[in-house]
Amino acid sequence: MDEMIKLIYKAIDDKKGKDIRIIDIAEVSSIADYFVIASGDNTRQVQAIVDNITEVLGRAGYNYKSMEGYESATWILLDYYDVIIHVFNNEDRRFYDLERIWRDGKTKTIEEFK
């Protein structure tokens, strides 16, 4: 899973995603092991980030279970079973504040996956 997290992080960073957060939720939830949360400045950037994630992970052999919110692109959720990726526009990210909701999880840095 470490390799997958690194690929996700790089795919987001390559499209200039902002404020990338990795939260280990394995001990507080059974829905996944990690949340990866990031922001884009507008709907096109949010979609570009998600497109890059799916392309990079697809090439590495990872396929998502489901995707929600692509058309509106204010909050796109990608479910990769053990990793759930949330890509927000800036306004919706502040409104939903997943980092606060999941504060019982452990925030990780990308360096912890190298």
Description:
The chain contains 4 helices and 6 strands. With 114 residues, it is an alpha+beta fold. It has a single domain (2-113), classed as Beta Polymerase, domain 2 (2-Layer Sandwich), CATH 3.30.460.10. A hairpin with a 6-residue loop joins β3 (66-68) and β4. The protein starts with a helix and ends in a 6-residue tail after the last strand.
Provide a brief overview of the structure.
The protein is an alpha+beta fold. The protein has helices spanning 2-14, 43-59, 90-96, 98-101; strands at 18-24, 34-40, 66-68, 75-80, 83-89, 106-108.
Order of helices and strands: HEEHEEEHHE
The average pLDDT value, as a whole number, equals 96
Beta-strand content: 25-35%
Number of strand elements: 6
Q: Give the proportion of residues in helices.
A: 25-40%
What would the principal axes of the Cα set say about the shape? Answer: globular
Strands ordered across the widest β-sheet: 3-4-5-2-1-6
**Count of discrete domains:** 1
| CATH architect. name | 2-Layer Sandwich
N-C termini distance: 11 Å
Report the major sheet. 6 strands, mixed
Number of helical stretches of at least 4 residues: 4
Seen as an oligomer or otherwise, the chain set is single chain
Structural class: alpha+beta
Radius of gyration: 13 Å
* Corresponding CATH superfamily: Beta Polymerase, domain 2
